[in-house]
Design goal:
By secondary structure, the chain is of the alpha/beta class. The chain is built from 9 helices and 13 strands.
Length: 285
């Protein structure tokens, strides 16, 4: 089994120091194999914010897979935005690998940011081609995970539709066809866990879709600060959402979703199946 901590939308420059310390303590206690950070490490892509994000990442245990978000691209410095949009991210953050692969899990990061749009983004055909080529080289036994900032059904603005290259609408279906089991994204500051058969139009096989809320930012959108702990096995994935509880001043489990691997991909476990599995575990303990 592999344990992945999924953090997103940290927004250093607009963080609560209490939350920052609490996330570090909670993640250390979970002893994860890998920490996946799905973008927006900073609020405005400033040097001091990237340095704060770097300090935070350095305090976390385990391997890191980190991808940028739209807030990691300069907004007001137009020259930097178009000439070198991810220079700050690459200088301070991207010393971490954008992938992690072993016999049990293959986690591949992808950049969905676009300089010509302020907040929208997505995978292009070229991105998907690169990912599918990487997927073809990972061990057959590994659960395959894609990490990126933008969810795949982000509506997109008119300006984004004019941008070339535009996000590719068939990205999810193509990646699922190539064996992707799990997508980890952020951007909305809202938590979600489900499968592609319910969320996207994917025929023949389903994958798991997990979005993380904001772990440390004061820019909440009607939901408590949160992050995910994902436990991955070849035939079972459990997604645990930890939410900030102001009364106890700590992160606590708010929701847990379990997915089983079946012939058509990944589906939410039935209550009966979960109860049966729990009884078997109790009987064997």
């Amino acid at each position: 089994m592999r344990t992945i901590v999924h953090l997103s939308d940290l927004h250093f420059g607009a963080t609560d120091p209490v939350l920052v310390s609490a996330v570090i303590a909670e993640v250390r206690g979970r002893d994860p194999h890998v920490i996946a950070v799905s973008g927006d490490l900073t609020q405005r892509a400033r040097r001091t914010q990237f340095r704060a994000a770097r300090e935070f990442l350095s305090a976390l245990p385990g391997r890191l897979v980190v991808v940028p978000g739209n807030h990691d691209v300069p907004l007001y410095n137009l020259f930097a935005r178009f000439a070198a949009p991810l220079r700050g991210f690459r200088r301070h953050v991207a010393c971490e690998a954008s992938h992690y692969i072993d016999d049990e899990v293959a986690i591949l990061g992808a950049d969905t940011t676009r300089a010509f749009t302020v907040k929208d983004g997505g995978l292009t055909r070229r991105d998907v081609t690169r990912l599918t080529q990487q997927l073809d080289t990972v061990p057959a036994s590994a659960v395959r995970v894609i990490v990126c900032h933008h969810p795949f059904d982000e509506p997109g603005s008119l300006a984004a539709r004019w941008t070339r290259p535009a996000p590719w609408s068939d990205a999810v279906a193509t990646l699922v066809e190539h064996g992707v089991d799990l997508f980890l994204t952020g951007h909305r500051h809202l938590s979600f866990a489900g499968h592609t058969a319910a969320r996207y139009r994917v025929e023949g096989r389903s994958a798991i879709v997990v979005e993380a809320g904001t772990a440390t930012s004061v820019r909440a959108r009607g939901e408590a600060n949160a992050f995910n702990v994902v436990r991955v096995e070849r035939t079972q994935v459990t997604v645990e959402r930890l939410e900030w509880q102001r009364s106890s001043r700590r992160f606590q489990t708010a929701h847990r979703e379990q997915f089983d691997c079946v012939a058509t991909g990944w589906l939410v476990s039935s209550a009966e199946a979960q109860d049966s599995r729990l009884e078997k575990r109790k009987g064997g303990s």
